[in-house]
Amino acid sequence: MTDAELQRIADDPRYRQLVRARGRFGWLLSAIMFAAYVGFILLVAFDKAFLAQPIAAGGVTSLGILIGFGLILLAILLTGLYVLRANRDYDAALATLRAEHGA
User: Fold this and answer.
1) Phi, psi of 64 (to 5 degrees)
2) CA-to-CA distance for 20 and 22, rounded, in angstroms?
3) Which of 2, 30, 59, 85 could be stapled to 54 by a disulfide with Cβ–Cβ 3.0 to 4.6 Å?
4) Is 60 strand, coil or helix?
5) What are the distances in angstroms from CA 39 to CA 31, 44, 68, 99?
6) What's the pLDDT tens digit per position in 19-39?
7) Nearest Cα to 63, choosing from 71, 75, 74, 55?
8) Alpha-carbon span 11 to 5, nearest angstrom
9) Can you tell me the distance from the alpha carbon of 1 to that of 59, in angstroms, rounded to the nearest whole number?
C-alpha cells in the first residue's frame, strides 16, 4: 500500500468510526479485567479469611484458588471475545474500506 492509499482510508469517516468503536470495546474489556483483578487484590488485602475458606468440607483447596483460577479464565474469555469480534466485525469492515479505496 502506498502512503496515498493509506491516507485516503484514514480520511474516511467510516474508518474513524471503526477505530473509535474498536477502541471503546478494547477499553471496556480492559476495564472489566481491571475491576475483577483489583477486586481480587482487595479481597487478598482485606478479607483473607473469606479466601481461605475450603471449597468442600475437609478439602484442601481454598476459595481463593478457585477465584484466582476464575480470573485466569476471565482473561482468556475476554481475549477470545475480542478476537471473535475483531475477526467478525472489524476485519470485515476494514476489508470493505480497503476494497472501496482500491488498496
Assistant:
1) -60, -40
2) 5
3) 59
4) coil
5) 12, 9, 11, 45
6) 999 999 999 999 999 999 999
7) 55
8) 10
9) 61
Percent of the chain with pLDDT over 90: 70
- The mean pLDDT value of the chain amounts to 92
User: What's CA 30's distance to the chain center, in Å?
Assistant: 5
Give CA separation, 21 vs 5, 40, 44, 54, 70, in Å: 22, 29, 35, 43, 28
**Beta-ladder partners of 54:** 62
Query: How big is the CA angle at 41 (ends 37 and 42), to the nearest 5 degrees?
Result: 115
User: Which comes out higher in pLDDT, residue 102 or 28?
Assistant: 28
Cell, residue 63: 476459595
Assigned C-alpha cell, 61: 483447596
